[in-house]
Each structure stands twice: as C-alpha cells, then as structure tokens.
C-alpha cells in the first residue's frame, strides 16, 4: 500500500538533463483523479521553466500505467455538471501542456493504459512499450464514449485504427499498438528502461534550443493546410538559422568536428 502522504507525482532528474515524472498511486491504478491531474499539471508547469531538463520521461508505478479517469470520483459527481466540466477541462489542459512543453516527452508504457491513460500515452511525443503492455479506449463498453481520448488517439494513428479502438473498446497488445503507430518501439520488460535511457540520452545530447523550435513547429504545422504549413515552416527555418546553435552546427559539420551547443 502506498503511503497516503506520498506525493502523487514523483520527480527524479539526472545530471544529463533527463527528468522522470512518475504517477505514484498504483493502488488506484494511477487513475486521473482531480488530485492526480492537478499534481501533474503543476509538475509540467515547473518543467516548462526548467532549463536544466532537456528530456522528460513519463512513467508510472505498478502494473497499470493509467486506468483513465477515476470512475468512483465521477460517479459521486454525476449530479454536479460544473465539477465534471472542470475535470475534463483540467484533463484537456494537461494533455496540451505535454504537447506545449519545450522538452520532448517520452512515455514509458509498461502495464495497461486505458481510456484517458491511453490518451496520456498518445499525447506524449514518443512512447516505448514493454511487450506486456496493453492499450484500450473502452468507454463504449460502459456507455461513455472516449470522446476526449479520441482527440489524442486520432492524431497519432489512422482514422480506421482509431475508430476500431473507439468502437470496439477492445484491448490491443503492445505489438498491435506499434503497428498502429501508437507507440514507437516495443521491447522486453527487462530492456525497457535501458531503451528509454538510450533514446532520452540521444535526444538530450542535441541543442535544447533547436529541439524547442522543432517541437513547437511540428505541432503547429500539423493543424495547417499544405501551403500554410510550408510558408510557416520556411519562416521557422530562416529564424532557426539565425540561432547560434544552428550556425555552430553547420560549421561543426563542415569542419568535421563535434558541435559545442550553447542552447541558444
């Protein structure tokens, strides 16, 4: 049993600039209660202003990554429309905070991720899953369509795959999730942390300024038409070239040496 006084979100950072946020309520299947969402929102807000953190890993304690919203909490609020609206407003805010975070976010997908838990995985920039992980958007099974998880899911996998998950509510394997594009890689449980460490270390070695520019541009251009996307990203490229790290990187490449990033 988890200590009731223990924080809902654990934070651990390495000298290399990799910060891990861990959902820490395994006895509640790490469900996204108001308290959990509030804690996660605060942690993400703090990270957004943390220049020492270059990559974020989102993990969870226990055998369930996240079971989605706390249905017991929701049942108690069925006659409180304002409370329910606030719950989904906050959840939507957290998912957008992940996307808007300057640092890349890697989901450590071990165990089961369902409904808003699957949404959490889909909202991360990258995801590495253990071969025993499973995913579902099962709201349809209890008469509550996974409408908000659908937003992140449909922006990660094809429409047909998203609708299959949403309409059937069936659990899919990690291997199937990789085929769909919901996760980047599937590895054995014993290799999960090493794989994530290697991926995070590779990214952390890049210019954080360049990563920030690229991540923001990626998500902004996705919502644009083709012509607007090219116009916007062309402007981003020109602005990027004015940065010290881009100029250093080009010189280092041409001079066949390792770049010395200034993160600006």
UniProtKB/TrEMBL annotation:
Record organism: Marinobacter daqiaonensis
Function statement: May play a role in fatty acid biosynthesis and insulin sensitivity.
GO BP field: fatty acid metabolic process
InterPro entries noted in UniProt: ClpP/crotonase-like_dom_sf, Enoyl-CoA_hydra/iso, Enoyl-CoA_hydra_C, Mitochondrial_ECH-domain
Pfam families for this protein: ECH_1 (PF00378)
MF (Gene Ontology): hydro-lyase activity
Domain of life: Bacteria
UniProt name for this protein: Enoyl-CoA hydratase domain-containing protein 3, mitochondrial
Family, per entry: Belongs to the enoyl-CoA hydratase/isomerase family.
Xref: SUPFAM superfamilies: ClpP/crotonase
Keyword vocabulary terms for this entry: Fatty acid metabolism, Lipid metabolism, Transit peptide
């Amino acid at each position: 049993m988890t200590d009731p006084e223990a924080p809902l979100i654990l934070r651990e950072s390495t000298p290399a600039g990799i910060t891990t946020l861990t959902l820490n309520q395994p006895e509640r299947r790490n469900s996204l209660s108001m308290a959990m969402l509030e804690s996660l929102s605060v942690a993400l807000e703090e990270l957004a202003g943390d220049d020492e953190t270059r990559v974020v890993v989102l993990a969870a304690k226990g055998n369930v990554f996240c079971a989605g919203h706390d249905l017991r909490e929701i049942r108690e609020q069925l006659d409180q429309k304002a409370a329910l609206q606030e719950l989904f407003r906050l959840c939507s805010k957290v998912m957008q905070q992940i996307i808007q975070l300057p640092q890349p976010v890697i989901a450590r997908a071990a165990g089961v991720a369902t409904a808003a838990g699957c949404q959490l995985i889909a909202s991360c920039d990258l995801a590495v899953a253990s071969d025993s992980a499973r995913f579902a958007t099962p709201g349809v099974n209890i008469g509550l369509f996974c409408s908000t998880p659908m937003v992140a899911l449909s922006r990660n996998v094809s429409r047909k795959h998203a609708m299959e998950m949403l309409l059937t509510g069936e659990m899919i394997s990690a291997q199937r999730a990789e085929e769909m594009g919901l996760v980047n890689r599937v590895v054995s449980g014993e290799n999960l942390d090493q794989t994530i460490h290697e991926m995070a270390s590779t990214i952390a070695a890049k210019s954080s300024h360049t990563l920030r520019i690229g991540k923001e541009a990626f998500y902004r251009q996705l919502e644009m038409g083709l012509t607007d996307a090219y116009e916007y990203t062309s402007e981003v490229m020109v602005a990027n070239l004015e940065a010290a790290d881009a100029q250093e990187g080009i010189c280092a490449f041409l001079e066949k040496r390792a770049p010395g990033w200034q993160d600006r």
